[in-house]
Write a structure and sequence with these properties.
Layout (H helix, E strand, L loop, with lengths): L8 H5 E5 L5 H12 L4 H4 L1 H8 E2 L2 E2 L1 E6 L4 E10 L8 E9 L7 H13 L3 E7 L4 H7 L5 E4 L1 E6 L25 E5 L2 H7 L14 H9 L6 E7 L7 E10 L2 E11 L8 H7 L5 E7 L3 H7 L2 E2 L23 E4 L6 E2 L10
Parallel strand pairs: 6-7, 13-14
Antiparallel strand pairs: 1-4, 2-3, 4-5, 5-6, 7-16, 8-16, 9-14, 9-15, 10-11, 11-12, 12-13, 14-17
């Protein structure tokens, strides 16, 4: 707590602050006990540090009970960039031990926001029944809702991942095509992509984020492409990940950065992908949905009886809504934002 902040009733009982490096093992034990037994953040320290340790700082606020010196609450956060003027943060794992002082969870969040002074605080993967009402009515977010789920199916008789009750043929527009350039490393990224095309985006994702989050991920292998209309630098980035299950593979579009209209030129890419993959899907919110449909993806509506699963560790054959919230009304969300596309 800074010297100009007044202590309150929480400070008498708790020490609320950023966790230290020497408290990671204790945090992992807390996650295993109170969040989920066997969760990857409770059993894989290397993955924990990849996700939450940046330049020696543990990106988790904790509350330690002064009487016992034990962690009783925490709230992780993830950075979209290292740009202090455009710092946008996603909230992540959050838990308070039952029996703690009322509203301790919200107090931890408030302390986090005061300490970090980010441009925006984005919530991703929030609970529809509990956290969504809080974000709507107590936190005064401008935009609370769920991501739209889009997909397109390959034409086959046997679907092993999706559950297909009705098939709709792929109908992407063919009159507009973009060029795709594979990006394998940071040097490729710097050479291929024009970062000025996404400098006004919320969240702002810089080269540090793209490199760390996708190109150097320790477990998942992402496919990153630069999108361009001519031979100049790419004006958008497309990020995909293969999802195998049951002897088949789907392709998941998990992020898109840059000029939205270029997405509409992906019909050729998607048509080729459907020769290899069972389906292609995309979760997004506040994105250019006209361009998504132009590319050939269709919306998985609430009453659609087809099942395009989201959970694979373990696999769950059901449609899943992903809810998000932001105080910045036009922040754009994709599947890989926050902690929604990570191993479990």
């Amino acid at each position: 707590m800074s010297s100009n902040q007044t202590k309150n009733k929480f400070d008498e009982r708790y020490d609320i602050r950023l966790a230290r490096l020497d408290e990671i093992d204790e945090l992992m034990t807390f996650i295993d006990t109170w969040w989920r037994k066997g969760h990857i953040m409770a059993r894989d320290r290397a993955m924990f540090e990849y996700e939450y340790v940046v330049d020696g700082r543990v990106n988790m606020m904790i509350a330690k009970e002064r009487a016992t010196n034990k962690i009783v609450g925490f709230n992780g956060f993830l950075m979209a960039s290292k740009n202090k003027d455009k710092l946008d943060l996603w909230g992540s794992m959050r838990k308070v031990v039952p029996g703690s002082m009322g509203l301790l969870g919200l107090e931890i969040v408030k302390r986090k926001e005061r300490l970090l002074n980010a441009r925006s605080y984005l919530s991703m993967g929030i609970n529809e029944d509990t956290t969504v009402p809080i974000n709507k009515y107590m936190r005064h977010y401008d935009d609370v809702g769920k991501l739209t789920h889009f997909y397109c199916l390959s034409d086959r008789s046997d679907y092993r991942i999706a559950k297909v009750a009705h098939y709709e043929s792929f109908e992407g527009e063919r009159d507009y095509r973009v060029q795709l350039t594979p990006i394998k490393n940071l040097d490729d990224l710097r050479r291929v992509y024009d970062f000025s095309c996404s400098e006004d985006a919320i969240p702002y994702k810089d080269e540090w984020y793209i490199n760390r989050r996708f190109l150097e991920h320790p477990i998942f292998e992402y496919q990153v492409f630069g999108l361009s209309e001519d031979d100049g630098k790419a004006q958008a980035l497309l990020v995909c990940r293969e999802q195998p299950y049951g002897g088949a593979t789907a392709l998941r579009i998990v992020d898109y950065i840059g000029k939205p209209h270029l997405f509409g030129g992906l019909s050729g890419f998607l048509s080729d992908a459907l020769k290899k993959y069972e389906y292609v899907d995309l979760y997004c919110r506040n994105f250019d949905e006209a361009s998504v449909r132009r590319a050939g993806l269709i919306e998985l509506s609430d009453d659609d009886i087809n099942i395009i699963p989201n959970y694979f560790q373990p696999y769950v054959a059901k449609n899943v809504d992903i809810w998000c919230a932001t105080p910045k009304g036009k922040a754009v969300f994709f599947k890989a934002d926050g902690d929604q596309d990570r191993p479990n």
